[in-house]
Amino acid sequence: xxxxxxxxxxxxxxxxxxxxxxxxxxxxxxxxxxxxxxxxxxxxxxxxxxxxxxxxxxxxxxxxxxxxxxxxxxxxxxxxxxxxxxxxxxxxxxxxxxxxxxxxxxxxxxxxxxxxxxxxxxxxxxxxxxxxxxxxxxxxxxxxxxxxxxxxxxxxxxxxxxxxxxxxxxxxxxxxxxxxxxxxxxxxxxxxxxxxxxxxxxxxxxxxxxxxxxxxxxxxxxxxxxx
Length: 227
Description:
The chain is built from six helices and seven strands. It is an alpha/beta fold. It has a single domain, classed as 3-Layer(aba) Sandwich (Rossmann fold), CATH 3.40.50.10320. The chain has a seven-stranded mixed beta sheet, sandwiched between helices. 45% of the residues are buried. The model has no long low-confidence stretch (mean pLDDT 94).
């Protein structure tokens, strides 16, 4: 099975569904990761102030994280960090459409549309558009993941609220998710920040307790076709 993960920024793919990526890989599925944003320029007053080497280091970390999880490849594009709203939506859609046409995924994972981060919301809209169920489209399932420090920090004030209905048992792959996040040494935070090793463990154990397994990642099903 071909699987596509579309994330806005480097590390979102790990935070949102890293353990699920590893589970797919272990089952023999081919996982492709597409990261839309360059991931760094919003930290500076002007995008031109960003250090090119810092950007290259972040992208190398993304490749290493994908290797840890067992993804086949990780493609990064260069949309402006936390400024996707300055780019025509059609241009974002076309990037995703090219990935869908190239990799022919049956399952697509992406951001939840009600996240606090504007890039996440635009990514969701672009993926929803790019995977329209037109004749010949192979995408059977589209699922949205949460990203710690974005989804829950909307505090339910943005619509739609994250309402998971699908849970993946990741008891066997949670440690690889945390190991992959450690590759992003510049992105890892200290607990109790949700983007920490301990924070990811807490979230996975909490969702696991909801559905009766040791650890789980939670998703909202946008659409699914059962043949």
